[in-house]
Amino acid sequence: MEKFNIPNDITNQGNDNFSAGDTTFVQINPSWGSEYGFVNPNEISIAQDGRIYVVDSSASSIHVLNQDGDKPPGFEGLLNLADDIGNQIHPTDVDIDKKMNVYFIDGSEKIFVWNQYWNEVGIKKVSTSGIFTHIETQIDTQVFYGSDLWHTILNSNEWSAKEINGEVNQSIIDSLIKPHVFYNGSNEENKFLDTYYNSELSTFSGLSTTYNSENYILVADDYGGINNQHRIMKIIYQKSLLIELNNNEFVWAFRGQYGSTLKGYGTGAGTVNRPVSLDVDYQGNLYYTQTGDYFPLHMLIPNLSGDFATYPSGFQPNADDIMNVQSYNYLSDVYLDKNKNIYAVGKEDNEVFVFNSQGEYFKSAGNIGDTLSILKTPVAVAVDERGVLYVCNSGDSTVHRFKLSNSLDEDLTSED
Fold first, then answer.
1. pLDDT digit string (tens) for 75-91?
2. Which of 58, 84, 159, 259 could bridge 236 with an S-S bond, Cβ 3.0-4.6 Å?
């Protein structure tokens, strides 16, 4: 994919410098507001090609911008989002994986997906039936798309494909080209697999793809209920269709299936209590903010050495700044940069707190001294690979951008 760079002629706003710790953030002109089609931007994410995805729940849209603020063509399918029967979708979070799958949630039990590459190239055919051979018995079985047996065989190591038939099924092709449901907690299969909780009542509040795995994504569930259904979930990929693109390339389409609950309800370090946002670093460590007792931001370190994975807390109370409930009492969003610096949005504090990978506070963005705030009710943050900070500010329905004053224009990567 084409890589977009920040232009060298971005200007600094004259008096909007603010100091915190050992560095100063400088605001970049211009901020992005209503002229970009924003109604009330409420979440933001940056894809691996550098493009910025701005969630606008009020506009039922996900706006896509290059780093210089231009809107690239080809992303119109993420505007004016609607489901299969025409009801508006109000997205609340978005993330993008290595294959340019754009995943987003709307606060329900569903996860949606839209693929940029398929829209760019176009789909020629989709698989609708096939003949598969059972490896042990060598018996052939014909199965059809949409059946339970179809999905079972596609995702089993006990069968090999003998013949897969493709056809120009425009109805299926159109459904794949448009944003469509990737995971649905109301499906009977997911309800059966998720036995303790009520999958159909899940309220997804945060979403994150992963750096090193293309086999699952993570979501935060904030339903609550009598079972305190506050948790971090793994949703695994299941092969669903073989697609032939217009360039004669064959790719798999996937659907989501309930995998496991990685961490559930509690009030201590490394437990989940009303989760709000979610992110993952390149080592697979999980970070999430929450509004319940007692700590606003948590880190989980996956331990895969035993018979089953465990996720102990990476931060400890009274030891790590990031878990100081007196200083950081409501964090609405969290984002990890390439150096594992942690950016947490203090919505009520009108600033973004920055911690190093050990959870030590060392910068902030948003306030000038003790009295003047550039930000007003910020709700989301993202950082690109050159260290430019993007903040969704609900107070003026604008995305503000910042950089460190000690970073050169030709190299905006933040320094520790």
1. 999 999 998 888 999 99
2. 259
State the number of CA atoms in the 13 A half-sphere of 268 facing the CB: 5
Q: Please write the tens of the pLDDT for every residue from 137-156.
A: 999 999 999 888 999 999 99
Mean pLDDT of the 101-107 span = 97
Going 173 to 171 to 181 to 131, the CA torsion angle's sign is negative
**What phi and psi values does residue 217 have, to the nearest 5 degrees?**
-130, 170
Cβ within 8 Å of residue 319, ≥6 positions away: none
b or e along 133-151 (b: 16 or more beta carbons within 10 Å of the residue's beta carbon)? Answer: beeeeeeeeebebeeeebb
* Placement of tokens 């469509």 in the chain: 180
Are 25 and 405 in contact by the 8 Å Cβ rule? The answer is: yes
C-beta separation of 162 from 131 below 8 A: yes
Distance CA 91, CA 106 (A): 4
pLDDT at 377: 93
| Confidence label for 202 from pLDDT (cuts 50, 70 and 90) | very high
How far is residue 203 from each of residues 110, 198, 264, 309, measured CA to CA in Å?
8, 10, 14, 24
Determine the Cα–Cα distance for residues 111 and 206; give it in Å rounded to an integer: 11
From first CA to last CA, the distance across the chain in angstroms is 30
Cβ pair 61, 94 in contact under 8 A: no
Closest CA to 236 of 252, 218, 220, 211: 218
pLDDT at 2: 39
55, 39 Cβ separation under 8 angstroms: no
CA 156 to chain centre: 28
Element (H, E) at 191: helix 188-193
pLDDT of 140 reads 95
Alpha carbons 55 and 77: distance in angstroms, whole number: 14
Sorted by sequence, the CB contacts under 8 Å of residue 227 that are 6+ apart come out as 196, 197, 198
CATH number (2.120.10.30, 3.90.550.10, 3.40.50.1110, 3.10.450.710) of 11-404 reads 2.120.10.30
